[in-house]
Specification:
The chain is an alpha/beta fold. It is built from 25 helices and eight strands. The chain has helices at residues 18-22, 68-87, 101-132, 136-139, 143-146, 153-160, 162-176, 179-182, 210-239, 243-264, 281-303, 318-346, 359-386, 409-451, 460-473, 480-495, 506-514, 519-548, 553-566, 582-597, 609-618, 638-645, 647-650, 652-661, 732-742, and strands at 4-10, 27-32, 37-41, 54-60, 600-607, 629-634, 666-671, 700-703. Strands 2-3-4-1-5-6-7-8 form an eight-stranded mixed β-sheet, with helices on both faces.
């Protein structure tokens, strides 16, 4: 059989169509399905894609991350869970297994689930069932609430407690959406890894975490139900204590303690084989049954009739639970910062890592901050609706006849801290852009002067446009200090919640410190009101971005970058995070490459985020396949984003390993105008020698963009500035494909396809 080389194109976050990827009007799917498939030009309809022994094929995986509407919904509801899941993958590279960073992130993830349940309990059981319904002005004209007045207090609270259970099930459903199609995809055995050390991305089974998600899901359901049961039983003990309620309350706390212990146990055990060894799932099912049983008993105990005094103030124990939970989160975040700093000192790549190796606490803190931002906005907006327009606040009297709705004090802290953080971070962003503009323009001038040394007078305006494009492309590299400011502000905000544990809120604190007649308290109350609106506007902004993404390609690409980065890594921390599309894409790519390599050779062409998928797939290929594979990356964020953000898994050492495995048959095309892609090994600044010697120094090839400043004789407009897309239309692209195809080893023994895949 003739030696056939296939150029396999993998698109990036823009989600290009198969027709666009192949530059062909009619294509046919040759493997895969509608979610992720492999396409070739349809024979008989124009050129068939074969040229000089090269055939073209495209892998389209964009449907795995769904459309803009689904992304927006998931970003709004699952953003905190996605951030904490991402945090564990950004730890410093120490050559070890990460120490206690994994357990700390899993514990913080559990507190996010607890926070979510507490916020829904605060709306349904506290604000509606306990505070609003007993007051006729609150239910007047509201048929959907007035019928609750006819129910006994206990039955009313038990009935409303079903809504947090439904909300927990909603999280389960959203996080599980399409997981069967995207995750647990069988793939090649891949490379083995040495015992111990880093949890390497080339490890067999790395992209199969279905059982890990099931285990974590059982634990988080138990946490959510346990928090709900503890709130109900705590309120019951306050109202009408009975021996049964005390026994159930203690049992629930034992259940929550068991969840904490299970979250501290490693999710994988190397002794159980090359896959991910797990704690017996039968034990997880037992835990889940116990949690459901205790919750049903708590609901039944709450629903029993009793005659308490009319409820006043807040639901007993709810505000203390919110404050205590934030205090626990503050302690966990503090330990995480200290642990990360210690590992950063041991890491050789900390100086070149994004945020200097502190990305893990930044993402973890962002997860906590966004969680309480959404919770505060939800509780206060519902309270605002029920008290007919006046935001509840201790510094302002309630309207005549209105119910004294009082959301927990910690949410007022969250509003104030959120307002301060948003204002200061926004100011820091503007300051950073302004202070780096001169330096970015100076570097851009050097680049433009090298590319267009003697421009004609009529080309000067176009030259300025190119310079500004190059300068803007470097803006993203300047935001490291911004995230450090955010980390400090958020940690301070979370830490101050400890004051709420002794019953001190913003208004009360202002009275004690300022010693005024209430003017400072009123101003601070106004600030918290503004903070609530700011948090709500942020949530609306996420929805607006989703709507804009339908019309703006640049906005759609920005949302896609955030989404695809956050959902690239397996869900080993929070089971309700969006599904990991790479758990299908990477093994599927590896399997297809293996099959095509058995018939000839493969030139993998990955654009943007597609280059990350191709590199991950190469690390999963058997040794027998590698001599028949070459790699072409273009617009790649492998070094600019992933090596700096995730140094323990896709750092420089891993990138060198990719090159070594394929014999350095690797070409990377990049442009100075590209805001996402960049060089992988060579220096970025002009007139500098490559940072590395040997074959790695020959990987990066810079493309001039645009090709010229003036209108060419056979055109009517100046050459476009391509920036991030497209690359395959540049004349250097087909030349690189032919070069890599010629460097493949056609005499290498073909791989045995039958032995290169296994069940998950």
């Amino acid at each position: 059989m003739a030696h056939e080389v296939v150029e396999l194109r993998v698109h990036g976050v823009s989600g290009a169509t198969a027709e666009t990827l192949l530059d062909h009007p009619v294509v046919i799917r040759v493997a895969g399905d509608d979610n992720a498939g492999f396409y070739r030009p349809r024979p008989g309809f124009g050129p068939d894609g074969a040229s000089g022994g090269l055939r073209t094929e495209a892998y389209r995986w964009g449907s795995l991350t769904a459309g803009a509407a689904v992304r927006t919904l998931s970003l709004l509801f699952l953003l905190p869970f996605m951030l904490i899941n991402l945090a564990v993958w950004t730890r410093p590279a120490t050559g070890g297994a990460g120490g206690i960073i994994g357990p700390l992130c899993r514990l913080i993830a559990a507190t996010l689930t607890a926070s979510y349940v507490l916020s829904v309990v605060g709306v349904t059981v506290d604000i509606v069932g306990w505070q609003c319904v007993p007051y006729r002005p609150c239910t007047h004209g509201r048929g959907y609430l007035s019928w609750l007045r006819e129910l006994p207090l206990g039955l009313r609270l038990a009935l409303l407690a079903l809504l947090p259970i439904g909300a927990l099930r909603l999280l389960w459903w959203i996080g599980e959406r399409s997981a069967r199609a995207f995750e647990a995809f069988s793939g090649p055995d891949g490379q083995g890894s040495a015992a111990g050390g880093e949890d390497r991305i080339d490890r067999p089974g790395f992209w199969n975490d279905a059982l890990v998600v099931q285990r974590l899901r059982a634990i988080h359901v138990a946490v959510g139900l346990g928090v709900l049961a503890a709130i109900l039983l705590g309120a019951q003990i306050h109202i009408h204590p009975t021996p049964v309620s005390y026994v159930l309350f203690v049992a629930v706390w034992f259940q929550l303690a068991a969840c904490v212990v299970l979250l501290c146990v490693p999710a994988r055990h190397a002794r159980e084989g090359p896959g991910r060894g797990l704690v017996d799932m039968r034990g997880m099912r037992t835990l889940q049954r116990v949690a459901i049983g205790l919750t049903l008993l708590a609901l039944g105990s709450t629903a029993l009739p009793f005659a308490p005094d009319p409820p006043r103030g807040q639901l007993p124990g709810h505000e203390g639970a919110v404050a205590a939970l934030i205090g626990v989160q503050a302690g966990l975040l503090g330990i995480l910062v200290v642990t990360t700093l210690q590992q950063r000192r041991r890491s050789r790549t900390a100086a070149t890592s994004w945020l200097g190796g502190l990305a893990t606490p930044v993402f973890a803190t962002a997860a906590v901050a966004s969680s309480y931002g959404f919770a505060a906005a939800l509780v206060y907006r519902v309270a605002d609706l029920l008290d007919r327009g006046a935001i509840p606040n201790p510094a302002r009297p309630n309207p005549a006849g209105g119910p004294p709705l009082e959301p927990p004090v910690p949410y007022r802290w969250a509003a104030l801290a959120g307002l301060v953080a948003v204002l200061l971070v926004a100011a820091a962003v503007v300051w950073r852009i302004a202070t780096t503009r001169r330096r970015r323009r100076r570097l851009a001038d050097e680049i433009v002067a090298r590319d267009f040394p003697d421009p004609s007078p009529d080309a000067l305006p176009r030259r300025v446009t190119v310079r500004e494009t190059v300068a803007r492309a470097a803006v993203a590299d300047q935001f490291g200090p911004i995230f450090t400011i955010f980390l400090v502000l958020s940690l301070l905000g979370v830490t101050t919640v400890a004051l709420d544990l002794v019953g001190i809120g913003p208004a009360e604190l202002s009275r004690k410190l300022a010693d005024t007649d209430g003017e400072a308290a009123t101003r601070l109350a106004l600030a918290t009101d503004v903070g609530m609106y700011v948090i709500g506007l942020v949530a609306l902004g996420i929805v607006a971005l989703g709507l804009l993404s339908y019309r703006s390609e640049e906005t759609r690409r920005t949302i896609a970058v955030i989404w695809d980065l956050g959902t690239f890594w397996p869900r080993t921390v929070h089971p309700f995070a969006p599904p990991c599309y790479a758990e299908r894409a990477v093994p599927e790519l590896a399997k297809r490459i293996t099959a095509m390599a058995a018939q000839g050779g493969v030139v993998l062409s990955g654009h943007s985020h597609g280059s990350v998928l191709t590199a991950a797939a190469l690390l999963q290929l058997p040794d027998t396949v590698l001599p028949r594979v070459a790699l072409l990356t273009h617009g790649s964020p492998l070094h600019r984003v992933y090596a700096r953000l995730c140094p323990a898994f896709l750092g420089d050492g891993t990138l060198y390993e990719v090159g070594n495995r394929i014999g350095w048959r690797w070409v990377n095309l990049w442009r100075d105008t590209d805001p996402i892609g960049g060089p992988i090994f060579s220096a970025h600044r002009p007139n500098e020698p490559p940072r590395v010697a040997g074959p790695a120094g020959a990987v990066d090839r810079r493309l001039r963009d645009p090709r010229g400043l003036t209108v060419e004789p056979d055109d009517t407009v100046p050459p476009p500035i391509h920036q991030h897309w497209p690359y395959h239309t540049d004349e250097a692209y087909p030349a690189a494909v032919r070069e890599l195809a010629a460097r493949l080893d056609p005499d290498a023994p073909p791989p045995d396809v039958r032995n290169t895949s296994r069940a998950s």
